[in-house]
Amino acid sequence: MNISTLIGVAGCFGMVLLGIISGGTSVMTFWDLPSILIVVLGSYFGLFTFSSIADTVGIFNTIGLTFKATNFNEKALIQQLMNMSEKARREGLLALEEMLDDLDDEFIKKGLRLVVDGTDAEIVRNLMETELGQMQERHVSKIKVVNMWGTLAPGLGMLGTVIGLIGMLKNLEDKSSLGPNMAVALITTLYGSMVANLLMIPWSGKLQIMDATESKVKEMAIEGVLSIQAGDNPRILGMKLLTYLNPLDRKAVEAEVLKD
Q: CA-CA 20 to 30 A from 57: which of 97, 184, 228, 251?
């Protein structure tokens, strides 16, 4: 569980609810089914026009990723590649073949398989970078759908406001309809803002950060595989990969993997 996302969502809604309650207003005052239909479901179905059915239906799985704990474990990656580099230098590249089945990372496994098969370094780089590019395209496509929901929601909120005002103006003589219509007019704007600013925009931002982190780890893997193929000293390989980390992480990992 990604505690950070949970704290963010719970904190945002908690503060809004606290603000409402502390102002002496009942929370149920802000419950309005017509507004939910117009803003939440209306903006969701708008996504079908923007994107494919698969991406629109799958958006909940995409959002669910922000609640899962992800640890790409750069330290373990560097250590693993350094160990392989040492074995390759000591016993030759073919000796890596017996280690491939134990690898969990399919991306590194494919790259090393090419190396063991004697593929040219430029081809190995091109193939791994192409796979990285395809992964990034898939991520961008899914993040755009989340972004679009955040863009559509305030617009549907304004549409609901207009609908509510029209209903109110058409029934001015019916005093009992003024309240419900006015509520729809205002609460739709509130719902649109909440969907965009409390949910979709933060989720989209987090997905972009996750994509950038995974891309960086893939780039480290490419550099590591090519370094093994080039016969680099394990320490040199480690130093190359450490350059991908920020100074704080680099210092912590460096003390572990380059301690000898």
A: 184
